[in-house]
Design brief:
single chain; alpha/beta; Rossmann fold; nine-stranded mixed sheet; about 15% strand
């Protein structure tokens, strides 16, 4: 039987540092929400949330909906939820508007695998709101039986979204809203292995690699757009609840995959939403973060030279 290996159970735990050990409400005038002396130091507030406009892919449920709720709680002007199910979209918008006020949320039907649709949503937001301040590339699936679509959703859409963000959120754009932040929802599996879901794992490795490249100073200096990565541990979302044998490439792999998921302890999406808020506010350009078991970690990925073991001089 195989199992997912979360960061805390691997040698990689030495590269993550706890930054939030206690969640609590915080006024926007406070320099930091940390309460423990051993937390990672937050040197700078990069963004406050009042009057901001956000685009969240996969925003109608789970982590995306939790992030939208947190943004509106902190005074964001508008949360635009992108998805493919109008029924779920309407329900999510109704829930958010009932909690935060009329027209605070909006649903747009969009397939993240279609670059044209993705760009049309950006153009709509430029026309309607002056641009986008926050992009959360959150959409993702686990379905190795349709791994080509899985790779499109988990990897290509992250690349498409980030590149469109550079185009429509960069400092050279004519939009009113400039130099925003892009958060890419990654997965702790991209720092480990998940043998019974190899294509899913590969898509997340690819998303992590692309994010690390696109977060580099090389791009930040040109665009002024911050890009940060958020690696999520097992979370109580439809993405996890819908795991079944038929979503694996092979039936035997599917049995192992389901068994592995059944043994995982999942965190509440609301905690991931709070982690999202922290990295939007404090995340330095190019930084990586891990949220697992209700804790947020600053993730420092080692250089390959540090884990190579020399065998011989050739």
């Amino acid at each position: 039987m195989v199992s997912i290996r979360p960061i805390k159970n691997t040698l990689l735990k030495r590269f993550v540092r706890p930054t939030i050990l206690q969640w609590r409400k915080s006024s926007m005038s406070e320099p930091c929400i940390n309460q423990k002396g051993d937390c990672w130091k937050c040197d700078r507030i990069y963004m406050r949330f009042d009057c901001k406009v956000a685009l969240i892919t996969g925003g109608t449920s789970g982590i995306g909906l939790a992030a939208a709720n947190e943004l509106l709680c902190k005074g964001a002007h508008k949360a635009v939820l992108a998805g493919t199910d109008p029924r779920k979209g309407s329900a999510a918008v109704e829930k958010l508007c009932n909690a935060h006020g009329k027209d605070k949320a909006r649903y747009v039907e969009m397939n993240v695998n279609c670059l044209q649709q993705f760009e049309e949503v950006f153009k709509m937001m430029v026309d309607s709101f002056g641009g986008v301040d926050i992009l959360f590339n959150n959409a993702g699936i686990l379905n190795d039986s349709k791994w080509e679509i899985e790779v499109d959703t988990n990897l290509k859409s992250v690349i498409h979204g980030t590149l469109l963000g550079f185009q429509y959120m960069g400092k050279e754009t004519s939009c009113t809203r400039k130099k925003g932040v892009i958060v890419n929802n990654l997965d702790v599996v991209s720092m480990g292995v998940f043998p019974s879901a190899p294509m899913y794992t590969a898509s997340k490795y690819g998303a992590l690699g692309a994010t690390r490249c696109l977060t580099a100073d090389y791009h930040f200096k040109k665009t002024g757009v911050r890009v940060v990565g958020l690696l999520c541990g097992p979370t109580d979302t439809p993405h996890v609840k819908d795991v079944s044998i038929d979503k694996a490439y092979d039936e035997e792999w599917g049995k192992d995959m389901v068994e592995a998921f059944n043994k995982q302890t999942t965190q509440n999406p609301a905690l991931v939403g709070r982690a999202f808020m922290h990295v939007v506010k404090f995340g330095t350009p190019g930084s990586m973060w891990t949220v697992e078991d209700g804790q947020l970690f600053r993730t420092v990925i080692p250089r390959r030279e540090t884990f190579n073991i020399k065998v011989t001089q050739l």
